[in-house]
Amino acid sequence: MGQKVNPIGLRLGVNKTWQSRWYADSRDYADLVLEDLKIRNLVNGLPECKNADIAEIEIVRHPQRVTIIIHTARPGVIIGVKGATIEKISTDIQNQLTKKVQIKIKEVKRADLNASLIAQNVGRQLMGRGSAKKILKQSVSSAIRAGAQGIKIRLSGRLGGAEMTRTEEHRDGRVPLHTLRADVDYSTFEAHTTYGKIGVKVWVYNGMNYGVEQNEDAGQIVRKPRRERRVADKNEGADKAGKSEKSEKSEPSAKTRS
To answer: Exposed e or buried b for every residue in 139-161, given b needs 16+ CB within 10 A?
Structure first.
């Protein structure tokens, strides 16, 4: 019926996890959610992080401190010379919060397979007045070359400065959105052009993922055919009977003892 669901929200607890991990009382919950949004906007708005290609910002709250994990394709930009830039970022965030702030940097090794980085790259090229169709084809082909099993990119807005908005979409491979075990990465981005905003949506399918809690050995007993189980049980029974007969023969009878 045209009712779309966020692919990441649909897979939470299956093979995706939350970007914010903490537990709080119901009275403090709303304030902490707003604080998380404030931290993310603050990190993305800092001039030191402008060209750092930040893919994701995780927030883990402890009783006495807040840990911010920044996933970036260019960690050297955030760290800076001898860690000067990251110290400045931590002091700026610390001034906005009451708890102690700890910042960790994680490198995104395969940037061509990350939906957030692909969306940002497409948006930047659109803001640079690039051709929409050319940008779509290049982004899709580079993701497939990098190893993605499927990708879909959708643009919507005044493409090319047209008077009426339209939607342009390009895809390659398969993107199974209804399969929960499918590892589908999803992200959006807004390109602020002179004609207005152009929305970018990216879906990247990286194969099947059963999650960390999935046991690979599970199901081996179930897969074993019944016929094999019956033969094995018969063999076990015959072995036990043979052992009992041998034990009876080896034991001397009462008459022989006397």
So the answer is: bbebbeeeebbbbbbbbebbbee
